[in-house]
UniProtKB/TrEMBL annotation:
Organism: Deinococcus metallilatus
Full protein name: Uncharacterized protein
Length: 75
């Protein structure tokens, strides 16, 4: 299951995950979200591999943020 999640994260756009981390995370996760958004693919992989479970949670939150923004017509 972790490998499936890792592959999903690697193939997703990091914007919404990083945004959820910046908006809803602790200071640590806000900084990690900034790093995620700035990272190239190799470094994103390192971040995702080290924090798969935590980033999966923020990935799901990001999907909800994206859906809410689309529903509101803002995106």
């Amino acid at each position: 299951m972790t490998e499936d999640r890792l592959q999903t994260l690697l193939h997703s756009e990091p914007y919404w995950t990083a945004r959820a981390m910046r908006e809803q995370g602790s200071r640590f996760y806000r900084a990690l979200g900034e790093a995620l958004e700035a990272a190239d693919l190799a470094n994103r992989r390192r971040i995702y591999e080290g924090w798969t479970a935590e980033l999966w949670d923020f990935y799901q939150r990001g999907l909800r943020l994206e859906e809410a923004e689309r529903a509101s017509g803002a995106g």
